[in-house]
């Protein structure tokens, strides 16, 4: 018979699953309490929820949410990061934390749009530029040909202006 606490935990986990854009499972074995606190603070700043879960409760919530692929990434001592915005942000935050702190935390997998990602694919996702950076790059590339065309069209006019300015300077020197 499940306790009220477990029922509430499954309900809360299911709600987090329903609203998330990406779910990343990590193995926190060997992570100190201080490091866990720092990690949670870093993730909270990126609008990412991070929670240690019991596997059986996670499996039950995944089934209730219709996301049974979660079962394949939750193994061993698991803590799960739930991202709600851009999918690259939680992956970057976890990857950066692992590199910067040299912690024993490891990514065991992720689910993005119903597709299971391996730890290597999560690392690749973390290395992608953010959506804002991609938009800025695209706008720069779209703007580049227009700028080049404006410079080409402006070239003869500026050349004529330099020739005329040179003539004005020459006439002023002759008049002096």
List the helices and strands and how they pair.
Layout: H1 4-19, E1 22-27, H2 33-45, E2 48-53, H3 55-65, H4 70-73, E3 78-83, H5 88-101, E4 106-112, E5 115-117, H6 119-127, H7 131-175
Antiparallel strand pairs: 1-3, 1-4, 2-3, 4-5
- Which parts are unreliable, with pLDDT below 50 for 5 consecutive residues or more? none
Assigned CATH architecture of the largest domain: 2-Layer Sandwich
Which strand order does the major sheet show?
Answer: 2-3-1-4-5
Instruction: Please give the alpha-carbon distance between the first and last residues.
Output: 107 Å
Fold-level CATH name of the largest domain: Alpha-Beta Plaits
**Helices and strands: which structural class?**
alpha+beta
- The level of helicity is 55-70%
CATH class categorisation of the largest domain: Alpha Beta
Q: What's the main sheet like? A: 5 strands, antiparallel
- What fraction of the residues are assigned to beta strands by DSSP? 15-25%
- The H/E string reads HEHEHHEHEEHH
User: What sort of overall outline do the alpha carbons produce when their principal axes are compared?
Assistant: elongated
- Report the strand count: 5
- Indicate the mean pLDDT: 81
- Structurally, the number of domains stands at 2
CATH H-tier superfamily of the largest domain: Ribosomal protein L10, N-terminal RNA-binding domain
The Rg value, from CA coordinates, equals 28 Å
Quick structural summary:
The chain is α+β, with helices and mostly antiparallel strands.
Could you characterize the architecture of this molecule?
The chain has two domains: 125 residues, Ribosomal protein L10, N-terminal RNA-binding domain (Alpha-Beta Plaits, 2-Layer Sandwich); 46 residues. Helix content is 64%, strand content 16%. The protein is built from seven helices and five strands. It has a five-stranded antiparallel sheet with strand order 2-3-1-4-5. Strand 4 and strand 5 form a beta hairpin. Helix 1 crosses helix 3 and helix 2 runs antiparallel to helix 5. The radius of gyration is 28 Å and the shape is elongated. The termini are far apart.
């Amino acid at each position: 018979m499940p306790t009220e606490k477990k029922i509430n935990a499954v309900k809360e986990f299911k709600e987090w699953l329903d609203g998330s854009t990406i779910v990343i499972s990590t193995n926190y074995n060997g992570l100190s309490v201080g490091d866990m606190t720092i990690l949670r603070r870093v993730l909270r700043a990126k609008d990412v929820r991070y929670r240690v879960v019991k596997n059986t409760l996670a499996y039950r919530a995944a089934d209730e949410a219709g996301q049974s692929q979660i079962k394949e990434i939750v193994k061993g001592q698991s803590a799960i990061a739930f991202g709600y915005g851009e999918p690259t942000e939680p992956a970057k935050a976890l990857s950066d934390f692992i590199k910067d702190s040299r912690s024993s935390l490891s990514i065991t997998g992720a689910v993005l749009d119903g597709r299971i990602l391996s730890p290597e694919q999560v690392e690749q996702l973390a290395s992608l530029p953010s959506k804002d950076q991609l938009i800025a790059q695209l706008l720069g590339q779209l703007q580049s040909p227009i700028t080049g065309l404006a410079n080409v069209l402006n070239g003869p006019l500026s050349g004529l202006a330099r020739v005329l300015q040179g003539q004005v300077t020459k006439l002023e020197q002759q008049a002096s």
